[in-house]
Amino acid sequence: MWNRFKPDLKLRLTLRVAAISALCFTAIAAYFLVEADRSVHARIDAIAALAARTLELQHNKIQWVNNPRSEFPDLDSVAASVMTPGLCLAFRSGNGDVVQRFCGGAPNADGEPPRVFAAFYRSLFDPGREAVRPVESRGAKVGEAVVWIDPAVLTAQAWHEAGRLMAALAIALPLLCALVYAALARALRPTQVVRAGLERIAANDLTARLPPFDLAELSAIREVFNHLAETLATTLAERSELTRKLIALQDDERRHLARELHDEFGQSLAAIRALAASARHTAAQDCPALLAECDGIARTATDMMETLRGALFRLRPPDVDELGLVASLEGLVAGWNGRSRGRPRFDVRFDGAFENLPAAVGAGLYRIVQEALTNAAKHAGATRVTLELAARKVAGNEDRVIELCIADDGRLGDAAVKSGMGLLGMRERVAALGGRLSFETGPDRGATLRVVIPALADPIVMERAA
């Protein structure tokens, strides 16, 4: 569920590009504001220097012509050439009084910037700063030429320039994000092919291979992926071959052990029973007190014979190829019901025809059922075990599969036992037959074993698996 809310790589990279672009626009805006402030102060410095030089010339001219009635200071000529809206030009006498001042226009009230921006701009740039140049005559200071620009005008101009940049950002950023997302979607399209290949590998399709890619990084991934798939296929094939050999060796050992027990141990028990019967016959004539001991020996030998018969049946099951899978499984279930005396209760149901199964499939299914029933009865403490075997056609073709389902209501505390070596052996048998096995436990108790095996397979593989 959490993966549904995670942004994909395209969206994440697009958001990062958008954030970097916004930072770049902010840096550009800050640069333009700094350059504009520097240009303004350079201009008013130049105007102040021009005004001071003009006033010095005026003052020197008065002294040359000795005409005290000439007006001083006279800033009209300077103001006429440099005056712009918001610019203020003044002459300040030596005692600090402003003798003459000119100001050009007033800030436009309709274009006033927000107060927050105005306070921020004034705290950074000090737009009302004056440019002052001394006015000297014959080495003596007669006053100062002062130039400044109305802070409201500078703030409004800065807001106007910032607004233009923000408008450009509002238009360019969404377009940039759309182009980046489209480019990333096109560039990352091959990752869907990689994902599909991984899903096929996860589904045990080891024939999956990735096609060539244009990008060097994806080409490197392709080479590693294909090499891994080939290595995994080879490894699993070798493992399956080893598993088939181990299963065949195990079955051979079981048959050999069953033969040894039947020939040696079985004959010894039969001899003990015969000797016990002979001893009882002799005791009945000569020593009646030994009759009880003779009967005990006979019962013990009989019980051991029954135990041996059950062990032989488990080691060497009936010939499934001759009796058929259905009859063999019915006999197996009937034997469990007889030995357990109804606790647990074993039920078996069949659906479909099982007459033409390969011998290896029938023998493998019998061994799987035998192991599963043993786990359910001895380790899980189940009270009811249900076995269902069905032969079904695969959708889209004429091939058949055998579906086996064994469910019990046993304790979950012994799930580790049920999923241990017994389940491992069943997995190996199923894998050798080219099938699939799943093991599920219920929320409170009980477990279900499901096996799906193809009804037709390679005869050589089946012969090895048998």
Total domain count: 2
State the helical fraction: 55-70%
Tell me, briefly, the overall form. Answer: rod-shaped
- Span between N and C termini? 45 Å
> Overall mean pLDDT score?
79
Assembly form of the protein = single chain
Largest sheet: 5 strands, mixed
Encode the helix/strand succession as letters.
Answer: HHEEHEEHHHHHHEHEEHHEEH
Can you characterise this structure?
Its main location: membrane. Residues 185-237 form the HAMP domain. Residues 365-457 form the Histidine kinase domain. InterPro entries: HAMP_dom, HATPase_C_sf, HATPase_dom, His_kinase_dom, Sensor_HK_TwoCompSys, Sig_transdc_His_kin_sub3_dim/P. The model is unreliable at 414-420 and 457-466 (pLDDT under 50). The protein has 466 residues and is of the alpha+beta class. Helix 3 (115-125) packs across helix 4 (151-187) and helix 10 runs parallel beside helix 13. It has helices at 9-65, 76-82, 115-125, 151-187, 190-202, 216-286, 291-315, 320-323, 325-340, 359-379, 415-418, 421-432, 459-465; strands at 87-93, 98-103, 131-137, 140-149, 345-351, 384-393, 400-408, 436-441, 447-454. It has two domains: 7-186, no CATH class; 318-466, Histidine kinase-like ATPase, C-terminal domain (Heat Shock Protein 90, 2-Layer Sandwich). The longest helix has 71 residues, at 216-286. The chain is built from 13 helices and nine strands. Helices cover 61% and strands 15% of the residues. The strands form two sheets. A five-stranded mixed β-sheet has the order 5-6-7-9-8, covered by helices on one side. A four-stranded antiparallel β-sheet has the order 2-1-4-3.
